């Protein structure tokens, strides 16, 4: 049933909500009850003055009766039906349902949205469990120790006659494991407490190290002045893994700062602008080093913000410096259309693309990307590449003049249906 | 006729407890704590059954199981897998790799004994 034929159903619904009898409403608008009955059962079309009169009597806008429930509500209902899988909902009657029972439809839509939110939470937690090596190792330690204690205790409790040496050995084992369990449980609780209380999403070492770099504004004056990485205070990082990652990041920072001293680099940028190719030639460094250097300059040194993202050959994001308007998800969810990933297919070939990321704050960005071998491969060994992408916002005055390639952040929140790279359905409707 | 079990587990106290249980139940038990060469050790020992931990140093239990199933002489070897990760995805992975039985830690001794006896009985009947 098409939408504009459901005006009658909506009139009936609204009349019942208003507590009016069919005969009363018919009299108020000057028609017979039998004619109103035909209208309410969608057997007569209605429009013009009669529609306005009925809407006035029911206290609603005429469009509420002709257009019915919001398209978003209907879309949500259809999405809920699709997600229900085996349950055969009458999808073709979603509009009729929303028109006749707007309250129930809204309840159903709200519950569907709530379920979606909960699923995302579960996904995030599950993702964290999978990707957080510290958490996984801690849980494994606790469960393995518990298994050892349970097994040993059962032997002691259930074995009738146990040789003294075996008994003593198992007692010792239980004692050792009990101490181990106490320590590992305590460490786990401390870890989870810290994760929950921190404003940053701590716990995942990579994210913790990244948050540490971001907290310093991606700039380290002490290293610029020739200081050593070892002098940097990393005690705020809770795990040794995060400290190791942060040290590696700072080591790369230091090497870049030595190769491109701040004053010289700023002067070169002043002369050439943000031109990575020219800058790399001038300082005899590779393109990724220039990208990193541009992203590590002091706040306000450049006339515009720059974003940076690095991934490995599996597509896992290793580092992000975010920039307003360009969402950078972490876990295997990024849009495969990003030039960052295109560059992986063309190692050592610099790629420049103007892109537009869809969303509420859609803007255009010039993305410069290049992939390079992580280390010099040995003979008969395949190189392992990393890719880096510099993200430069395009001034509003310059947007729209060139065909910007539309990209997303991740499939789940990308509204573009007609996308060959889509991995999974979006939770948004087109035009969000 | 002796029944022989190879226990591949890196937690010494779990190893000791399971070993004790199985010996009391009449099994001959060999143990190994490293994943790296586990396939070669199993192949050489030719046990009647393997108890295999998932998280092992050197090579994971999943990898070991996959390699065992790829070998003609070890395809039918009963493998009881022990893991602290009880997620359904891990169970699915293990089943796809050809596990005979999957058990999550912490387990009870009777569960282990029952599983070992059942798997051995099934293997000898076929």
TrEMBL record, chain A:
Q: Does the keyword Transcription regulation apply?
A: yes
Keywords of the record, alphabetical order, are: DNA-binding, Transcription, Transcription regulation
The molecule here is called HTH-type transcriptional regulator RamB
| Gene from which this protein is expressed | ramB
Q: Name one GO molecular function term.
A: DNA binding
User: Which Gene3D superfamilies does its entry note?
Assistant: lambda repressor-like DNA-binding domains
Q: Domain HTH cro/C1-type: where? A: 11-65
Sorted alphabetically, which InterPro entries does this protein's record hold? Answer: Cro/C1-type_HTH, Lambda_DNA-bd_dom_sf, ScfR_C, TransReg_Diox_bact_type
- GO cellular component annotations of the record: cytosol
Keyword Transcription regulation recorded: yes
Pfam families attached to this UniProt entry: HTH_3 (PF01381), ScfRs (PF09856)
Automatic annotation (TrEMBL), chain B:
Among the GO biological process terms of this entry, one is: phosphorelay signal transduction system
Response regulatory domain segment(s):
4-120
Q: Which UniProt keywords apply?
A: DNA-binding, Phosphoprotein, Transcription, Transcription regulation, Two-component regulatory system
**Where is the PTM 4-aspartylphosphate found along the chain?**
53
List the molecular function annotations (GO) for this entry.
DNA binding
> What Pfam families does UniProt report for this protein, alphabetically?
Response_reg
- Please report the name of this protein according to its UniProt entry: Transcriptional regulatory protein WalR
